[in-house]
Design a protein that fits this description.
Radius of gyration: 17 Å
Largest sheet: 6 strands, mixed
Shape: globular
Structural class: alpha/beta
Distance between the termini: 32 Å
Order of helices and strands: HHEHHEHHEHEEEHH
Strand order of the largest sheet: 2-1-3-6-5-4
Low-confidence stretches: 231-258
Length: 258
């Protein structure tokens, strides 16, 4: 199957996954108007044609499609996918002050997958936010049961996943992929190698780029590039609980894309 066919098949599968969650989202939205429209991605052929299929994972949305004029009862998964495809292009081409987008460009450029910009994709640990911030705890269990990120990974089959989420989100990664990230590259670098049992992708986990900047750890991005470009295989770890002792960094207050 060529890249064009792969994108068509993947997008049909993604739409099926997303559509299955729209009823639950609408029910939640009725009692929580501050609940954002979920982030649903749409992949283009360039991703499947890239030399390295790379998925970046952030924390959650940050308001994002706040001016949607379509009523929740009428909103379809396909419309959300199309909106975010266009928004993604605009963000990549025009948004330069966001630490998140600066980090994505930096790593994609270092890995040689920045052209065309559709060669890499991004998603989130949680598909929604409330009031441009992390949803309340009672919604976390709902989002974990949806397992949207886990389904996206199965469908898109990335070679590399870079998680920009930090320690507060590790329990969610365990819920999605069965293991907790606990294999630090070093005691001083906030970077963890992550390859859960049964997964074919190589993973690296670090803080959100906004936190990397505030903690003066931006050089971790170069470490990510070097490790992913090297020939060495990421070590597998049998995980049970977190043992690293990095400082707990809160997510950035200003984040147009998580």
């Amino acid at each position: 199957m060529d890249s064009e066919e792969s994108a068509v098949v993947a997008n049909k599968q993604l739409e099926s996954v997303y559509s299955a969650r729209m009823g639950e989202w609408r029910a939640l939205r009725q009692s929580r108007e501050s609940l954002s429209i979920p982030f649903f991605l749409k992949v283009e052929p360039a991703y499947f044609a890239a030399t390295m299929k790379c998925l970046f994972v952030g924390q959650e949305t940050h308001g994002w499609w706040t001016d949607c004029k379509i009523q929740p009862s009428d909103l379809r998964a396909e419309q959300i996918m199309d909106f975010y495809l266009g928004a993604r292009r605009w963000l990549h081409e025009n948004y330069h002050r966001s630490p998140y987008w600066q980090a994505l460009r930096h790593v994609a450029n270092g890995l040689g997958i920045d052209a065309p910009p559709e060669s890499f994709i991004f998603s989130n640990v949680f598909p929604c936010d409330t009031d441009k911030g992390q949803a309340p705890l009672e919604l976390h269990e709902v989002f974990r049961k949806w397992k949207i990120l886990a389904d996206e990974v199965k469908i898109l089959a990335p070679d590399i996943i870079i998680f920009f989420c930090g320690p507060r989100y590790y329990g969610n990664l365990q819920a999605y992929f069965g293991e907790w990230p606990i294999e630090p590259v070093s005691k001083v670098k906030p970077l963890i190698e992550y390859r859960p049992l049964g997964q074919s992708w190589k993973g690296l986990v670090t803080y959100h780029p906004g936190s990397l900047r505030r903690l003066q750890k931006w050089h971790v991005l170069d470490e990510i590039i070097d490790r992913l470009k090297s020939k060495e295989t990421l070590a597998r770890t049998q995980c049970t609980a977190p043992t690293q002792s990095w400082p707990q960094a809160p997510p950035p207050a200003e984040m147009p894309t998580s």
